[in-house]
Specification:
By secondary structure, the chain is α/β, with parallel strands linked by helices. About 40% of the residues lie in helices and about 20% in strands. The chain has four helices and five strands.
Length: about 120
Amino acid sequence: MEPQYRVIIHFDEADEKKQASVLRNVRNVLEDLGADQTQVELVAHGPGLDIFLDQSTVANGVTELLARGVIMAACRNTLRERNIAPERLLPGVRLVSSGIGELVRRQQEGWLYVRP
């Protein structure tokens, strides 16, 4: 069954309070619109990529949302520019060639863009 809502969330901040906030936003979207009716993808690039690293203070929240079917997408360009090994990403986080490119592709496919 195709989800009624497809939401792409843009994240590019390293601040730990913002990381926790964006994960709350994802949970709120799933609860408000219905997890069975909603597909969410969180795209992180630049300093926001820290949310997906193995040492992240919000790693448990990322893992919990992955288990709920949220797509977590990390920018390969950011990894390369910041010299971060892909192995440092939390299990289940997928790589996209470019965070901005992923945002553009998803919007072209009709996903709703959110930048909290």
